UniProtKB/TrEMBL annotation:
Alphabetized UniProt keyword annotations: Signal
Stretches for region Disordered: 277-303
Bias-annotated ranges (Basic residues): 292-303
Signal peptide coordinates: 1-21
Source domain of life: Eukaryota
Keyword Signal assigned: yes
Protein name (record): Uncharacterized protein
Low complexity: bias regions: 279-291
Amino acid sequence: MIFKATFAAAALVSAATLVAADYDATNMPAKTDRAHNQVGYNDCIKRYGASNSKSLCQNVYINSVKDFCLWGPRFTAAIGDVEPDVVAYCMKSGYGTRLIPDGTIKGVQFVKTPSFVQVTGNCDCTKLKLSTGDQGGELDPHGATGAGNPVGGVVFTRAFTGNGSFQQIHEWSNFMAHDEFSFRACIGPNAKKFCPHVFDLQGSHWNHPGKYSNGVFEQCDGQRGKMPGRYTKTISGKVTTSIFSQGDGSKPSGQAPGATSNCKKYATISQGTAAYVPTKSASTSKSIATAARRHHPNRQHAH
């Protein structure tokens, strides 16, 4: 489907924001942005344990096809109306967040490229408290005020470290609608170009090309593909680049997804215990994992 966002484009803000802040996933403060009236919390494991249905955690983790999180409302609402206050919903227990109920995700593709990790898919995201028929909203670390949506939101991944440790992602974007979602988390010198935050009205497929298919659950390596909104052409042997400006009356086609390889397919995904959790000591990590297994005694670890 075409993502039919109805909210205004986020303004470019020159003020310093939390995008540049560095946080240790194993030692998070209670809140990362008290100055902008952050609703939720970041010391989530300490505050909520392995998981909690009432959690106001505002940390997200994008690790694998079986282990990822999405932003969603605290209570049933159109997500475009509550973007500054959304909270984390995760597939795996251990992070101190709310859990994504089994059956919510109808299909998902996880792709790891040299410049970003990405999940795209279909969902019944009313189970994440999006309003029925909600055509969607876009979350990013900038927002119209520069404080980010959500305020105080922090994103981590362990997909690039190779040792179970977590790194903070400073540039990311997440599109959420009642029936589909996408989340891209970018690293490297071109992170802002692969994760722009000024094309919110173009939607998930345009910003995050990938698979949005029911019944597809797969994890792949991938090529970067082309940057959203940047188009190159060669005239008389000279390569020129044009940059799309949202609101100028045109809407160029989105870029094609980068080629994928080494794809591993799964029948479905479900809740369970996170293989790694961001805690300082092995004993603490073990206790959190044990608590999560008690909640899901028959689930296997997902990596």
